[in-house]
Write a structure and sequence with these properties.
Blueprint (H helix, E strand, L loop, with lengths): L1 H6 L6 H14 L1 E6 L5 H13 L7 E5 L6 H4 L1 E5 L6 E5 L1 H11 L5 E6 L6 H5 L2 H4 L29 E8 L10 H4 L3 E4 L7 H9 L4 H20 L26 H19 L4 H12 L2
Parallel strand pairs: 1-6, 1-7, 2-5, 5-6
Antiparallel strand pairs: 3-4
């Protein structure tokens, strides 16, 4: 439920979660986007469970796009067998998820596509660009796939299958999501939540020391303000709160050294990428984070 998602560390208000679920209900496809470390994949999974009203991992299909990912990987294509020079037609994870959803029409199924903009989306989705549209769901007689099994095979995406993608807006090396695909998705933007009372409460409920919580919030808010003010970076390059969300339920043993370790091994290397032409800015930012 929404309450479960909030309790488990989705630092979004009830209204924000209701809006995201409403957009997913009506559009059938959403993309959760934001800077590094804002918990995009985590939020996508919790939205899936809240939509299904069940933490049933069997009804959630997870894939991650990358530059070599293709239509044949995602939908259907010929794959080599153990026999030399022999290939067989194999359904990909999306088609299998559609088949599972069609077999359980009264239950909701979800496909989560992590890093959706790391792949060539037009090439990966193919004819799905049309079939994903909400008003084309369950279309009859459907469309012929690129690799049909029979001459009369037709395919459509079931209405009870929902798609949630995640997208890192900060990585300029990634492909932009083209306009045709954008039109079929609603976009939910996440931001760092260091200043959110829910973030403080989540850490406090798990017994993190108050001075450490205040230190994390103060130092990271100051860093993000510097990043936002940088004309070469901006809000899309802020550092997310998930860097400072430890595993487990008891943070009472964490100290300032825990904070320094994360800064030195995770945050500073990211800043070195951001300001690779201005190493002095990295040194200044790191000193501000690590100052006593």
């Amino acid at each position: 439920s929404i309450d479960t998602a909030i309790d488990e560390g989705v630092f979004l208000s009830r209204e924000e979660l209701l809006r995201a679920l409403s957009r997913l209900e009506s559009k059938r496809n959403i993309i959760v986007q934001g800077p590094p470390g804002v918990g995009k994949t985590f939020v996508a999974e919790k939205l899936a469970y809240a939509l299904m009203e069940s933490a049933d991992a069997r009804r959630v299909t997870k894939v991650q796009f990358h530059p070599s990912y293709s239509y044949e990987d995602f939908v259907r294509g010929f794959r080599p067998t153990d026999v030399a020079a022999k290939f067989q037609l194999v359904d990909g994870p999306f088609l299998r998820a559609c088949q599972a959803a069609a077999a359980q029409p009264d239950l909701r199924h979800v496909v989560i596509i992590d890093e959706i903009n790391r792949g060539n989306t037009s090439q990966v989705f193919g004819e799905l660009l049309m079939l994903l549209e909400a008003d084309k769901r369950g279309m009859h007689p459907g469309m012929t796939l690129l690799y049909p099994r029979t001459s009369d095979e037709r395919f459509s995406v079931p209405r009870n299958l929902f798609v949630i993608g995640t997208m890192n807006r900060a990585d300029r090396s990634l492909a932009l999501v083209d306009y045709a695909l954008r039109r079929r998705f609603a976009f939910i933007s996440l931001e760092p939540r260091f200043g959110d009372p829910a973030f403080r409460k989540w850490l406090s409920d798990r017994k993190m020391a108050d001075d450490l919580i205040q230190h994390v919030i103060h130092r990271m808010n100051a860093l993000n303000a510097t990043i936002v003010e940088d004309r070469q970076l901006g809000s899309e390059y802020q550092i997310g709160h998930s860097f400072f969300c430890p595993r487990g339920d008891d943070f009472s043993g964490l100290t300032m050294q825990w904070f320094r370790d994360i800064v030195e091994t995770e945050v500073v290397p990211l800043l070195e990428e951001y300001w690779y032409e201005s190493p002095e800015r990295v040194i200044t930012a790191a000193a501000a984070l690590l100052a006593a």
